[in-house]
């Protein structure tokens, strides 16, 4: 799983000349994601986080956690 930016499509409504964000819509479908590969990649990252934590390497743990929460699937 690569660290990538998701392309978002913003939905906006107008109310008395004020834009109101209704949310975002990602450019991929939930059902079409490669789930086996995602599970494999997440497991590998979790294992690396555990090993770094066991070593007491806090800097690496934080870096890997950031990668895990900010990553998006290649769709």
Descriptive account of the structure:
The structure is a single chain. By secondary structure, the protein is α+β, with helices and mostly antiparallel strands. Helix content is 45%, strand content 23%. It has 2 helices and 2 strands; from the N terminus they run ββαα. Strands 1-2 form a two-stranded antiparallel ribbon. The longest helix has 21 residues, at 35-55. The radius of gyration is 17 Å and the shape is elongated. One of its GO terms (molecular function) is RNA-directed DNA polymerase activity.
Summarize the structure in short.
With 75 residues, the chain is an alpha+beta fold. It contains two helices and two strands; from the N terminus they run E-E-H-H.
Topology:
Layout: E1 8-15, E2 18-26, H1 35-55, H2 58-70
Antiparallel strand pairs: 1-2
Helix pairs in contact: 1-2
Strand residue content: 15-25%
Sketch the major β-sheet.
2 strands, antiparallel
Instruction: Decide which structural class fits the backbone.
Output: alpha+beta
Total DSSP E strands: 2
What is the 3D shape? elongated
- Percent helix: 40-55%
Q: What order do the SSEs take from the amino end to the carboxyl end, as H and E? A: EEHH
Please give the radius of gyration in angstroms.
17 Å
Detail the poorly predicted runs. Answer: none
How far apart are the first and last residues' alpha carbons, in Å? 10 Å
What is the residue-averaged pLDDT?
80
Number of helices: 2
The main sheet orders its strands as 1-2
């Amino acid at each position: 799983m690569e660290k990538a930016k998701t392309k978002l499509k913003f939905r906006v409504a107008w109310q008395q000349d004020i834009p109101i964000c209704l949310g975002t819509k990602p450019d991929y479908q939930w059902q079409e994601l490669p789930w086996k590969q995602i599970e494999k990649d997440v497991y590998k990252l979790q294992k690396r986080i555990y090993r770094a934590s066991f070593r007491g390497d806090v800097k690496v743990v934080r870096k890997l956690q950031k990668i895990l929460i900010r990553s998006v699937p290649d769709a």
